[in-house]
Amino acid sequence: MTEATIRQAAGGDLAAIAQLRRESAQEQDGEITDPGFDERFADWFARESSRRIFWLAEASGRLVGAMNLAVFERMPRPGRAPSRWGYLGNAFVLAAYRDQGIGSQLLQAVLSYAEEHGFARVVLSPSERSIPFYQRAGFRSASELLVWTPTEDG
Questions:
Q1: How many angstroms separate the Cα of 66 from the Cα of each of 16, 70, 114, 119, 148?
Q2: Distance of alpha carbon 1 from its chain centroid, rounded?
Q3: Rounded CA gap, 114 and 118, in Å?
């Protein structure tokens, strides 16, 4: 088991998070040349940072994993306490650091935050490969959710 430090991201982590995102994409799709990526990522991060919390895993002096939680505030309703829910996304651990407990540490940090802050639920769209990982953490299929996808014709 690799000793990792799990922490919430700070403003100075943008470049490291973008690099990890680049490495994730490269693992899935191969080498991609995209000169505008850094600017697009910085713009996205600026828009999302008010409602998205990033957790980072550091080991061996570098960023080796990340996971984030998009927070959705529920519309107030008379007679019901305010609440929120989260969408867990962009979970990734570098291949050399997988199967060493780092993903579990990241997930535990996210779920602890959600529990401490009274989230109604945390949802995600897992890859086929990650389903057993999330099931071990207590996630289950959510047949009560519906999904709409636009048609190819537009």
A1: 10, 13, 16, 21, 28
A2: 22
A3: 6
pLDDT tens readout for residues 110-139: 999 999 999 999 999 998 989 999 999 999
Q: Can you tell me which residue has the tokens 């995102």?
A: 21
Q: CA 103 to CA 54: how far, in whole Å?
A: 13
Long-range contacts of 143-146 (CB under 8 A, 24+ apart): none
70-104 residue pLDDT tens: 999 999 889 988 889 999 999 999 999 999 999 99
**Reduced to 3 states, what is the DSSP secondary structure of residue 60?**
coil
Q: Length of the chain, please? A: 154
What percent of the chain lies above the pLDDT cut of 70? 98
Measuring CA to CA, which residue among 77, 75, 116, 111 is closest to residue 91? Answer: 111
Give the pLDDT of residue 64. Answer: 95
Q: Which residues of 41-73 are buried (b: 16+ CB within 10 A; e: fewer)?
A: beeebeeeeeebbbbbbbbeeebbbbbbbebee
